[in-house]
Predict the structure.
Amino acid sequence: MKEAELNRIRADFPNLGCQVHGHPLAYLDNAATTMKPRQVIEAITNHYRAETANVHRGLHHLSVLATKKYEGAREKVVRFINAGSEQEIIFTRGTTEAINLAASSYGGHLLKPGDEILVSQMEHHSNIVPWQLVCQSRGLRLKVIPMDESGQLRLDRFRELLTERVRLVALVYTSNALGTINPVEQIIEEAHGMGAVVLLDAAQTIAHLEVDVQELDCDFLAFSGHKMFGPTGIGVLYGKENLLEQMPPYQGGGEMISQVTFAKTTYNALPYKFEAGTPPIAQAIGLGAAIDYIESIGFAQISEHEELLRVHASAQLARIPGLRIIGTAARKAAICAFSLEEIHPHDLGTFLDQRGIAVRTGHHCAQPVLDFFGLPATTRASFSVYNSLQEVDLLAAAIEEARSFFL
Ligand code: 7TS
């Protein structure tokens, strides 16, 4: 990307211009959440400033307008991931709630005792615990696809585990702790061959790669708005219509019903059956603006620039003595996790923060990954389209400095 183009993109993100401890911010914690462009901030504030109303509930002007914008955001999501229709897009609070919805409604009602669910060793806790809960309550079994030292799934073991008892595979598309991009196309095809459905956790993919649910043929897909330049409090569960039709509601309340009597309640049509209560209206509108923003840059440019950052960061970090990159899969996103000799990641994170560099340290809500590598925590730099090669250099120089300071 030309420098002028990068500067133009950076100028859209007011928060990138802030100072931290007297240094310009270098924001390298994009896997946790991304910054928001002014287009998204304006869409949200405009709703609250000039167009506040509840949706689907009023005939008055503002309510009609809010409904149009809220449903317009859903149409944008349909186009963005190439879903079949609006019926297949359920707004949730985020990836976590999307997976909980699928686990509770699909896992809790359409799977039978003795059925098996496959997850991988590199899942975020939000794609482990909801399945554990449903396994406990329904007598299902959870099995784990292991990975190798590079952080790639053991496909040989996946094939051994994939028996006809496996009814569902829940897999992370891009690992937040390792950066690994899993071969989801192949896994979906093989799982379908055994009659299992597949849920993809696309939280770390959605802002970085084009996702086409019809081409992938995944059965469910979950993602969060706040990791794709949108607000917190909004996410999506995509599900194939025929599956969502069979699933019972996840929560009860207003909006999700057709008729309520004390004798019997009937439910609303898709997707409203799964959207009980006043939905996150401003957040959905913000998500729609975030989709417009991503499309205005284009995935070609996003992928090219992030790949440049990944290659440069991997090379710069690899030169630092004693630094061990955790996650060296052949296909990786711009997420670089590492350990540095005996320096505790929290000490390193604090040291970097003093220089304005924001990284995340800890287990990244993926404790089984850290257990596998025998580490209590790692330091993780994760990049977005607005990061620069200079920020990578700053990070590498500050790590070198930390090395001399701590060792
Ligand atoms: N799945 C993956 C792969 C994630 O990385 C995360 C959040 C989630 C699910 C949960 O998303 P939420 O929006 O519902 O919370 N990951 C991170 C992270 O890596 N650092 O902070 C949050």
